[in-house]
Amino acid sequence: APTVPDSLRLDVWLWAARFWKTRSQAKQAADAGRVEVDGVVAKPSRLLKVGQTLGIQREGERFVVTVLALSERRGSGADAALLYRES
Fold it and tell me: pTM for the complete prediction?
């Protein structure tokens, strides 16, 4: 079985969870201040852990999600949905 990391870069997680189509788009969004971790604007390299809350601003929509799992690989939409719970 693949090892599950206990922390993961924010931009990698956002891409794996399908909030952006490419990792570079996820990185740009974080650089632009559109992603918060536990209420604080976060850099793309910020290490994310299970249980943290993200505020994500995307195309006029705001998502607030709780991180349920970490993944370095981008899967299907159904796989991505297992990585977080939307509040």
Answer: 0.92
CA–CA separation, 12 vs 40, rounded Å? 18
Report residue 15 as tokens.
């891409």
Q: Which of these, 46, 19, 21, lies nearest to 31 by C-alpha position?
A: 46
Residues 6+ apart with CB under 8 A from 8: 47, 48, 70, 71, 72
Tokens at residue 27, please? Answer: 């990185």
Phi, psi of 86 (to 5 degrees): -85, 135
The answer to whether 38 and 59 have CB atoms below 8 angstroms apart is no
List, for residues 51-83, the tens digit of each pLDDT value: 999 999 998 999 999 999 999 999 999 999 999
Tally DSSP H helices, then E strands, for the chain.
3, 7
